[in-house]
Every structure is written in C-alpha cells, then in structure tokens.
Amino acid sequence: xxxxxxxxxxxxxKAKNWDLAAYELRQLTNSLAEAAVFYPAVPIxxxxxxRDPLVSVADAIAAGDDRKFxxxxxxxTDGCNACHAAMGRGFVTIAVPTGGQPPANQxxxxxxxxxxK
Length: 117
Fold this sequence. Notes:
This protein is mainly alpha-helical and 117 residues long. It has 5 helices and no strands. It has helices at 2-14, 18-38, 44-48, 51-63, 66-86. α1 (2-14) runs antiparallel to α2 and α1 runs antiparallel to α5 (66-86).
C-alpha cells in the first residue's frame, strides 16, 4: 500500500491538488507506522528516520509549494529506498514517477470547488 500511496501522493502534488496530497500523505504515514507494528523485523530506527522527510512533504503541501514538494518527495523516496536496502530488500526500489500520465482510474486535478488553489 505504501508504494501506491507514494505514487498517488506524487501525482496529487504535481496536479496541485493539495487536499488530495495531504490525504495521501496521511495514508502513507499510517502505512509506514503499521509496517513498524506488523513487521517486527523492521527496526524502529528505520521508521523514525522517515519523520523529517514526511514533515518536509507536509510543509510543502501546507504551503502549496511545488518546488519544495518535488525536492521533499525525492528525499522521502531516498529514505524509503535506504530502509529497503537496510532490510536486505534493496530489490524493492521506489522511484519518483517520471511519466506524465497518472494511473487511469483517478482524477488528480483539484475539483473546481477546492478550497486550496
């Protein structure tokens, strides 16, 4: 789930749908916390090192700052991959999406009634 939430977070932020991005960030944060609980082999330090990148993404979303969002998502992605490598699962590599087309079953543009522009 975390990988899908990461993907959706990226596309929501790139579409400047800050409400959806904030929602996906909460979902991703919850998934990471659940991983620490349900998978005892995940060292707590791997989860706590994700705090700063998650806060940076949250700050970028709150500010509606596309440049900061992009940079903080790259840092978050690097943190995910570092955790995977530390767990001996470096074969699970996450990337910031490079294609312009998001998954086809969701609209990422903010609705006309969005409170954040």
